[in-house]
Amino acid sequence: MAVRAVECIEESDPRFRRLDEVIERYGRDPSALIQVLHEAQRLFGYLPEPVQLRVARRLGIPVSHVFGVSTFYALFSLQPAGRHRIQVCMGTACYVRGGEQLLAELQDKLKVGIGETTADGRFRLEAARCLGCCGLSPVIMVDGDVYAECKPRLIPAILRKYE
Amino acid sequence: MESVTVADRALPGRAVEEARPEVNLVTLYIDGRLVQVPAGVTVLEAARQAGIRIPVLCHHPSLPPDGACRVCLVEVEGHKTLVPSCQFPVSDGLRVSTNSPLVREARRMVVELLLARHPRGCLGCVRSGSCELQELARQVGADPERFPGEPPPREVDDSSPALTRDPGKCILCGRCVRMCSLQGVGALGFAYRGLKTAVGPAFSRRLAEVSCVACGQCASVCPVGAITERDDTARVWEALADPARYVVVQVAPAVRASLGEVMGLPPGTAVTGRLVTALRRLGFRRVFDTEFTADLTVVEEANELLHRLAGGGPLPMFTSCSPAWVKFCEHFFPSYLPHLSTCKSPQQMMGALLKTYFAEVERIDPDAIFSVSVMPCTAKKMEAARPEMGREGRRDVDAVLTTRELARMIREAGLDLASLPEDRFDPPLGAATGAGSVFGVTGGVMEAALRTVSEWVTGRELGTLEFAALRGMEGMREATVQLDGQEVRVAVIHGLGNAARFLRTLGDEVRSYHFVEVMACPGGCVGGGGQPYAREAEVKRARASVLYREDAGRRVRLSHRNPALQWLYRHWLGEVGGEKAHQLLHTTYQPREPY
User: Fold this and answer.
1) I want to staple B189 with a disulfide (CB 3.0 to 4.6 A). Which of A64, B145, B298, B408 is the partner?
2) Are strands B399-402 and B369-375 parallel, antiparallel or unpaired?
3) Domains (range + CATH), chain B
């Protein structure tokens, strides 16, 4: 998966010190990897390479293993969060009523794939599980705002509302 | 004949456990037959002892079991699902079926599912004929078209001079991941999930960009063609066919001890003489013996050790002939770099001499010389490519072939190694002492060096060298040698994971040793990453015995007594450890990132 948005994180970034404190709190125990990664993602918004390297070094495990865990769980993201989060519902009702077309339109307009962030850091596109508003299908959600009976031609206007 | 004995020839491979009377025995039934085994073994192992070879794929005797591939499934009475025999423990009264219709059907389905995500072009794959998946498919009678369609190919990683990765062929057995971890490197891991699951370095990096040390142990356990040594045979064929090039070759000790295995001969067959003939028939103009420069390495290194023992450098001194160990040290223990011997490896010393001494003496234009080496090792390809290993725009070693690659070339040339007549290595770089032979086995470099050191210092032969397990840890031994009143503590380590454990566990105590031999591969070079594929530890032991026999059969067994070597020093090289020796035969190292 290509990393669309690249952020430069300096070695001197204060968040690293907080990450180190977290790791110390877990006693640098390698088996605390997942908890540490959770905290790291809370701190940085995602798990970029320098963060994974730091975690690997401090826990004394190979970075290939850290990378393996980061890429295995859907919750962990290797892409920056983006200012606005777009979720396209892919539950059954939304799916049969055009969810895929909405997803395709968004990928085309934003030039990103699923789970990726636009180059300018504005939007992050995700495919979501059933959002539970099947009567309003097909649904997309942006930053928690629900757009019911959405159609591809309505997408540009929706996106314009979010800087 | 000089008598040099070393009491503990700790041959590679795990020690055979003798059944002690107080060990618990367990009685179980496998395929209706009563089987009695010690408690604590797996059903797979119990079946093996009963003469039943349950097929496996992710399981490997050198690695902890994983239960990933599900090929070894068996039926156990009372269990509602089939269980992986590689992990299931034996217990009294257990009833196991390894070949019921259900088991055979399940096993076949597992293999067919593996084949469904595997490229079909067997004929064009380098592992065709030695591929474990191919053999398994044959064994279970798999139908490769049961689940038709091929997976999309994945990008090949040929960044490393030593190893090539083809993730498209990977069956995700995880052997390479476990092995890389066992070697203390951990450059390879599993990433992603579902159909996207892939094995490789972190961040989808290429091997040359991460801390891979090129030891090739991953390649030696890969059941398919997903990770293999970089193929340099084409370059060598091209050089051999070029009339403007003077192509020479050197052969490592461990190669002659193992090549026979892939040419229809039993493990433990020495094929030295026939190997030389084969190389000549392939078109090499001169065939040299790396054991000659092993003797040279001993002389230079023994001299260096004595210099350090007299206060001239940091102790312990670590051997430096294992290039994967050197790179490992550079990545993970850079503070120990000053401790590494500055001596090049025998391969590189030979390479340096070929383009200078040999070219001069034989009046051959060094630019015309194409120097090839045949090694049990994948890391030697990386070593030959190191920038320091050359001068005046020429590489000291132009191409490195693994034992496996040479076997392919011999076969391609239509030669039947077993029936070839015997021949000898060429002078002036072909005569070696027994000390040179044992370089290919763990403990060999230490023994060879100590023979010379002992005679230089005490004037007497090295007595019996008693090795003891180091703190009970596997893969490490230690001994003490008396050198005219000075006690010299030595250690021998094989396997990089063990080297890491040695350095980390002992901490400051490492400095209580004077000389430490490290070989990256378990067993030493006989178990190298480029050796013929073999699963059982007995094969490594058989290979080692060839080298010990070669040593015992030589009239001269002390490196410094090698007449051809003495001639080289006296008439060309100058002083041991002198300026010319330093220029050509010694090298430098550089710290690298651990990731």
Assistant:
1) A64
2) parallel
3) 25-113 (3.10.20.740), 152-230 (3.30.70.20), 234-585 (3.40.50.1780)
Out of B189, B193, B594, name the one closest to residue A67 (CB). B189
Look at chain A and count its residues: 163
Nearest-Cα residue of chain B relative to residue A67: B202
* Domain range for A92: 84-160
What is the structure's pLDDT at B121? 87
Cβ distance B192 to A71 less than 8 Å, yes or no, reads yes
Q: Name the domain count of chain A.
A: 2
Task: Tell me how far apart the alpha carbons of residues A162 and B218 are, in angstroms, rounded to a whole number.
Answer: 50
Q: Are A123 and A91 in a shared domain?
A: yes
Count CB atoms within 10 A of the CB of residue A12. Answer: 7
Tell me, what DSSP letter sits at residue B312?
A: I
Chain B residue nearest residue A77, CA to CA: B192
Rounded to a whole number of angstroms, the distance from the CA of B104 to the nearest CA of chain A is 32
- Shared domain check, A109 and A63: no
pTM: 0.91
Phi, psi of B533 (to 5 degrees): -60, 130
| Res B495: pLDDT | 97
* Res. A74 pLDDT band, cuts 50 70 90: confident
ipTM above 0.90, yes or no: no
A42 shares its domain with A89: no
**Does any CB of chain A come closer than 8 Å to the CB of residue B505?**
no
Q: Per-residue pLDDT for B406 more than 60?
A: yes
Alpha-helical (H) ranges within B322-463 are 323-332, 346-353, 359-362, 379-385, 403-412, 434-437, 444-458
